[in-house]
Amino acid sequence: MFENFDWIGAMRTSPVMLVILACSILTLGFALERAIYFWKRRANPEALIARASENARAGRMKEALWLCQNSPHPAGPVAATVLNSAHLSPAAREEKMLITLSEQRLLLERNLGLLGTMGNTAPLIGLLGTVWGIMRAFHDMARTGSAGPSVVAAGVAEALFTTAAGLLVAVPAVMIFNHFTRRISVMLTTAENQARTLRLALEESPAQSSGRDEHHRHSEERAAARAA
């Protein structure tokens, strides 16, 4: 069926097919770009945070920070933010961690909007092609004064094939969009959980313990001075 269809002729006579072709090229290009990007950002966040937590408990903060900064997974930058804000208050540390998570979400979601748009609009473009093909069939009928199958066949074929082409673009685009959306959710949830695990390990480190003791001692001294 498809081998007997004149694709070149359809492209020349139907502007809708040209639009669908452009949509398919854009969908393929951005899908490959996102696939390569996610491939580069793959890592083992559990192993990363385990090593960083071990260094943090031992007081080797520079080594822990280096591990996090050189990890491609979103857990790396988020954990690095937790380490860099260790001297701040708990509320400030939480806020900085959420800001970094939002920044990572923006990086991961880049160009996904176009894939979602293609998945939603390609069927509508195909439907436009259906209307265009039916209009062409009626135009041919009016021009020839005949309603024979050979007269309306070109317009009806164009209508059906543009509809099929629109669906062929939309279905993979929706599948790819949903896959990447789910992957982003998993990556960011993992990054947040691992960063909170590191923060707990950081609170158990010698430097943080001594810092808390020093802060508690100064608070007691200020309270005693005010009482006196």
Instruction: Briefly note the structural class of the backbone.
Output: mainly alpha
- What does the radius of gyration come to? 30 Å
Order of helices and strands: HHHHHHHHH
Global outline: rod-shaped
What can you see in these coordinates?
The structure is a single chain. It contains 9 helices and no strands. The protein has 228 residues and is mainly alpha-helical. The protein has one domain (19-122, 171-227). It is rod-shaped. The model is unreliable at 209-216 (pLDDT under 50).
In short:
It contains 9 helices and no strands. It has 228 residues and is mostly helical.
Keywords:
228 residues, mainly alpha, 9 helices
Write the layout of secondary structure elements.
Blueprint: H1 7-13, H2 15-40, H3 45-57, H4 61-69, H5 75-84, H6 90-108, H7 112-144, H8 149-203, H9 206-227
